Structure prediction request, 552 residues.
Amino acid sequence: GVARAQVGTCFDLCRRPNALPCNQRCPELRLPHVRVKLGVRPRPHLLCGAAAEMVSPRGGKGMPAAAAPAATDAASYGGAGAGGGAGGAGNTSTSAAFGATSAASSGGGSPGTTMLAAGAVAEMLKPLGSPDQHVRQAACQALARPECRGEPRIVAALAAKLQQDKDVYVRQAAASALGLVARRGDVDSVTVLVLRLTADPDAGVRRLCCLAIAQVSTRGFQAAVTGLLARLDDKDGGVRRSALKSLEKVSERGDPQVLNALFARTADAEAFVRHTAVEALSKLSEEGNPEVVARLLELNSTDRDERVRWSATEGLGRIAVRGDSRVLSCLLTKLDDESDSVRRAAAGALGRVTFAPLQELELQERHIAELEHTSRSEVNNLQAAMIQMREAHAEEAAGLRRKYQDLQEQMQREITERDERIRGFEVILEEQATTARVSEFLPHASRVMRFLDTLPPLAGPSGYGVEVVAPVWALRCVRSTASAGSGNPARGGAPNVRSDDNSPTGAGKDTRELLELFELFEQLSNGRVTPMELTESKPLDVYVHRGEDDAW
Prediction:
């Protein structure tokens, strides 16, 4: 039998049937009663539940930290005595830590946010090291709270308990709490869960690991999908069902590997596994998948379990194409099914896969008529706008033509003026052509002065035999005055050449020299030879001297 006992320090209880919460609450401690089996004394793990109740959002305002020791003492009456033992001290610290957390969250911070107090995490993790497995189990359950979500030390501690604890129920509590505490996308937590999903000998732990993976893993994470696919062949039907439900949340839509595995599980020996497989298959398949539709039709006709037929009927309404005659025939048959849930599902599916009823067609016709009326008014408006645009275009074209004529006349005037100016410039150029080559024969005075400045260092005996590059115009411009009756050479020029030879031979020689001179002049004028080429092997003899006016 069962007796009602006022324990008052229990909220989160383990899965064992030694204590079940009821709906009444203790008027003094504001905590729920429990119904305890006769002959079973309160265990230490109930004390951790009291700490969880003090700060639980479901427990109203919660109990302040100062009341935690009193609640712990109240729970120890009625034969608890030494049973509090090792768990009592550890759970008192946990209660104080949770109480400090509650006080910190209620005293400061914004509504809806809960932050752990400084040093509270270490106090919360202490019961995980208790030698009593019940305390460790309740501590894991107490850590599965919103304010602990994402705390790396708590996540790491729960992962360690899941991997290392020897008690099955502690590992189950750790797996369930890890799924609630770890943030979505935490790769390390998903890796630990996948590892225990494969290696843990207890089916309950594997089942909870499947559910925790669905809470932590992101959609399409390959490691999670691979681990869950491996558990579809688990010997425990509950594990297979949990893996199917998790695959529905973790895998990508239309993944062929997942669809093949789900397709195979629709023939599972357990009816509840087939039901879950059919439901997941219809949610992950693309609309109109012929293989999936054929399989759902087959299950609707052959499976004896009403849950499988219900999920297959729902799946047909979800993925079948409108107007498919096979689906319509099957759903019409299911309207006479012996199961009420199957009949309701068939009626709902028929509304989704059949063509639009008459009322909907009338609404569509009315909508079409409205669209036609709207289109007609839009066409009239467009025609009026086109007429206005055509008139505006004609006016604009006329203006552009007038502007083009004005520009053409202006351009003609400018061309006439330009031709007149060009003719004037040509006259000026013809007048200046006679003086265009003066600079070739008469250099600039500055150039003459710069060359004459280089002559004084060449005067004197030290300059004899020195070769210089002298411009031809400088040679022509050096002044020279011949001394009459003297045999000395003229200053500033070539020596005077006197020829008293009046014989015919001398005259012929002078003629040849003159012809050679004219030929040389012609070559120089035509550019066939340069002065530098003529004087390269035999330089000219020049004389540098200063005149009476001190000019060189």
